[in-house]
Amino acid sequence: MTPIIIVSLVLIGLSALLTVIRLLAGPTPFDRLMASDTLTVIATAFLVLFSVISGGTDLYIDVAIVYAVIGFIGVVTIARFLKGGK
Amino acid sequence: MRKLIGILLIGGFAFYLITVGMGLFSAESRSELDSVGSEILATSPDLSGAANTVTAVVVQYRGFDTLGEVTVLFASALGVSMLAMAIRDGLLQDLFDDDGGFVLQAGSLALLPFIVLVGIYIVLHGHLSPGGGFPGGVIIATAVFVVILTSKTLSIPRGLINVLETLAGLGFLAIGFVGLYSPAQSFLANILPKGEFGSLLSAGFIPVIYAIVAIKVASELINIISKLTAAGSASREAAE
Amino acid sequence: MRNWKGTFALLFLLAASWLLIVSSVALVELIAGAVAIVVIVLLTHRSRDLFGGLRLSLKALLFTPIYLMVFLWQLIRSNLDIARRVLTPSLPINPGIVKVQTQLQSPLGKLILANSITLTPGTLTLDIEGSSLYVHWVDVKGTDADAATQSIVAGFERTLMEVVE
Amino acid sequence: MVILGNILIFIGSLFLALGGLGLIRMPDVYNRLQAGTKATTLGAMSVILGSAFLAPEMLTKAVLLIVFIAMANPVSSSTIGRSAYKGGVPLASRSVRDDWAKEEATE
Fold this sequence. Notes:
The structure holds four protein chains of four kinds.
Chain A: H1 3-25, H2 29-53, H3 59-84
Chain B: H1 2-26, H2 30-48, H3 53-61, H4 63-86, H5 102-124, H6 133-149, H7 158-180, H8 206-239
Helix pairs in contact in B: 2-3, 3-4, 4-8, 5-6, 6-8, 7-8
Chain D: H1 2-25, H2 29-54, H3 59-86, E1 97-98, H4 99-106
Helix pairs in contact in D: 1-2, 2-3
C-alpha cells in the first residue's frame, strides 16, 4: 500500500463521514435519501479500491457491481414511495 | 381454518425447540461440532468442485434446506398476495396518481435489460464468485419492480410467470429424485460431472440448481409485486 | 422498421456488456451469454422501442466518441466548478429552476440529454414534460428563457442530434 | 501505469471528499443533489478506473461499472429531485427563480 492510497482511503472515509452527518441531520427525508444514494456510490468506489488493496482478487468488484445495482434500484423505489407518502 | 393454522404454527415451533434442545444435549463434545467447518473447507473442492465454498454448502451440503427455503418463500408469497387483497382500499392509492416522471420511466426502461443481464451473470457464476440464485433472482425481480412502479399500463404475463414458478419448483424436486435413484442413492446427490475447477461448467448440478432457484425467486417476487400493484390500481379505480 | 433497429442496438449493447462482465471468451460463457441475451431481448419489448431511437449510421458511429469526449470534459468542468463553489467561504450560489426547450424527438435522446445536463456544471434535470425540461440551476444568469436554453441545452444537443433521433 | 492509477485514485477520492463537503455546506436539497451527484460520479469513476490500472485483470468489469454509474447516478438524482419538488420541499430562500411553480400556478 503506497502512501497515496492511504491518503485516498482517509479522504474516502472523510467523504463517507460527511455524508453520514447529512444522513443523520436531514432535515427532510429527501436529504436523507440523497445522502444514502451518495453513500452507495462511495461504498461502490471503496469496494473496488479494497479489491486492489486486498491483493487484486476480482471477487470484490462483483460485489461492487451488485451493490451499485441494488443501491440504484433501492433509492429509486424509496424516492417513488416518498412522493406517494407526502 | 385459523385455529388449524395456529395449531400447526405452535406445533412447528415446539418441534423446533425440541430439536434444538436435543441437539444441545446430545452433542458429546464441542470440538466435534467445531470441526465441521474446517472439514467442509478441506473437502469442498474435491467433493463439489465449486470454488465458492458458501455456495457448495448452500446447494450441496444442505441442498435439502435450500429446497425448504424455496418452499418457505412460496408460502410467504402466498401470504403477501392475500395481504394485497386485504389492503385493496387505501394504502397504495397515492402512488398511482403519479407516473414517476419521464427521466425515471425512460431511465428504468433503458437500464432494465442490463440489470437483468447482471442478475443472470450473478446466478450463473454463483459457484465461482459471491452471489448465486437468491441475490441474482432478487436483482432480476427488483429491476422489473421499478418498471412496474413507473407505468400504469404494463401487463405482466401472469400465466407465464406462474408456469415458470411451478416448473422451477418441480425441476428442483426432479433433480433431487434423480439423485435418489442414482448410484449415490441420496436425495439431491451431485451426480453431474464436476468439470474443471473454476470454469463456468463446473461443480456439477450446482449452477443448474441455482438457475432454478433464481427463476423461482424472481417469478415469486414479480408475482407478489404485480398482485400488490393490481390491488393498488383497483383501489384507485374504486376511488374514482 | 424502428423496432428492428432497437432490437439490433440492444442485442449489440447487451453482447458488449456480457463480454465486459465475464471478461473471458470461453465457449461456454459465450453460449450462456447468447442464450441470456436473446431471452432478455425477446421479453423487453418496451426497452427495444426505447433503443430504437439510436441512429445506426457511419456518421452516428463517428459522433459517439465525440459526444463522450464532450461529456467527459463537461463532467470534469462541473466538478471543478462545484469544488470552487464549495471551497469559497461565501458560498457563491444563485439557485433557481428554469424551463428550457429541446428539439430532440426520441425518448432515448431526451433521456441522454437529461443525464448529460445533470452531470454538467451547475445544472440538474428535475423533470421533462414533452419538449420542455425543468432544470435546477445553481447559478441562474438573467431571466431570458432563450438564453438559458442556449447555455444549458445547445452545447450537447448539436452533437447528440447526430447520434439519436 | 501504477503511477497513473495512484494519481487517478487520489484525484477521485479528493472529489469524493469535496462532494461530502458540498453535502454539508449547500443550503437546500436541490443544491446538495447537485454537489453530491457530480462529485461522487466523477470521483467514483476515477477511483474505479485507477484501481483497474493497478489490477488490470478487472479492467473490463471496471469499465462496465463506470458506464453503469454514469447512466444510473443522474437518473436516481433526477428522481430524488423531482419527488422532493412534488413532495413540497421548498427551494432555499436565496433562490432567484422558479419557472416550474409559475407554470403550475397558471394551469
